[in-house]
Specification:
Elements: E1 7-9, E2 29-31, E3 45-47, E4 57-67, E5 74-83, E6 91-95, E7 99-100, E8 109-121, E9 126-137, E10 152-157, E11 164-168, E12 174-183, E13 188-199
């Protein structure tokens, strides 16, 4: 029997806004993923009301860079869901452990985040289950093969025990965003590529 598969970018058309997001360089919590256009209410890639069903899969791909400073701090990356896509209150879908930046000044460390979000229940108190990983390069100028390797750090999302099951109103429009919390340090973090895709 024939079987048809498809992949589609979430709304609005992400080819128009799949590039860089806002630069984060203060100790705060901020959204790294970009707006489709400035000053619009639709802040994130979003699934419209009625667009989720039990078993819906959403694939997130994000890339960017960070530049550290001479004071140590921590960065925590997390995916958030936002009811009505109003960019106000977010439900955390899954978060990494805190990444300690250290006291060395390193420019342009590449990072790469991949995650899969599964809709497991449709209800006003529905469930989105999320699991992924963040990889951060640690030596941009002189990579080496040593034991153990030191050229990349992998931070699972969540940090342990499989998926994070978050309670979300899956009957309503839900914006999907990549966010970050920076504590103490003022290193620069920026997202440069962003794609959120719904799989059949």
């Amino acid at each position: 029997m024939a079987n048809q598969n498809w992949v589609s970018l979430l709304q609005p058309p992400q080819h128009l806004w799949s590039g860089a997001g806002t630069v984060m360089n203060t100790a705060t919590t901020a959204t790294l993923s970009p707006r489709p256009t400035p000053n619009t209410p639709d802040y994130n890639a979003f699934v419209p009301a009625g667009g989720l069903s039990q078993g819906t899969l959403i694939r997130v791909t994000a890339r960017g860079f960070l530049t550290t400073v001479a004071s140590s701090g921590t960065l925590t990356f997390f995916l958030g869901s936002n009811i009505g896509n109003t960019a106000t209150t977010y439900v955390t879908l899954a978060t990494t452990a805190a990444l300690t930046t250290g006291t060395s000044v390193i420019t342009g460390l590449q990072w790469d985040l991949r995650a899969l979000i599964r809709c497991t229940a449709i209800a006003t108190s529905g469930t989105l289950a999320t699991q992924g990983e963040l990889r951060v390069g640690t030596n941009v100028t002189a990579p080496t093969l040593v034991t153990p390797p030191v050229n990349e750090i992998k931070l699972p999302m969540p940090s342990a025990s499989g998926e994070t099951a978050a309670t979300v109103d899956t009957t309503q429009t839900q914006g999907i965003a990549l966010r970050c919390t920076q504590v103490t340090s003022t290193c620069t973090v920026q997202l440069t590529q962003w794609a959120v895709e719904q799989l059949n």
